Amino acid sequence: MQEYTCSTRLLDYENSAIEVLIVQQGWRELPVGERIEAVRRYIIENVVFTFCGGGIRPVSTVLVSRGGNSMERCAAAMALLRAVGISCRLRAYLVDEEALYHLLGDSSGHQGQSVLLGVTEAFGETAWNHLEGLSLDSLLMGKRGFVKLADISGHELGVFTCPEDALARYRKAYSWGQRIRLRLLLSRLERSLKVLRERSDQVVSE
User: Fold this and answer.
1) How many CA atoms lie within 13 A of 182 on its CB side?
2) How far, CA to CA in Å, does 97 sit from each of 7, 44, 75, 110, 168?
3) Model's pTM, two decimal places?
């Protein structure tokens, strides 16, 4: 399964800073299952989810910025997993904006657009396993009974060996004008997420 372990322009795990991180965390010394879970937890705790940005930056950049969209968080997990010898792939979904607004508790007008979200899958001892919690903000995962991304997705785009291929297929389906409208949608979703976070912080502080 060499195609599931190689580096790419976005999965740039040969970057020296990523290697330093891996050595510091000691992930290579862990059993396979614990290695996968350790990487998953690291991304959840150290790369804050954002809707902003319609593309995907190299993983080395995402880790330094400590923030990323769904595809960037999934790509970051993929790069770290491959760097520690774990085969992994990306399952991409087109999620309707109405479903996302519903999770955000926002009743804004909808224009029928879809947002590209991802799920990282890692090969454990004997099978492929979904890494839950990377696709969306932790405030949204599990909200209103939705636990897995597939539960709210209207369309599965496919399974890909690297994020570049998923992004290329996604872009083929959208004109330039549609991409501009998508960026505006992502900005609106980000504002709604900010409001939800502020409400959550208020509840915690009370």
Assistant:
1) 20
2) 32, 23, 22, 7, 21
3) 0.90
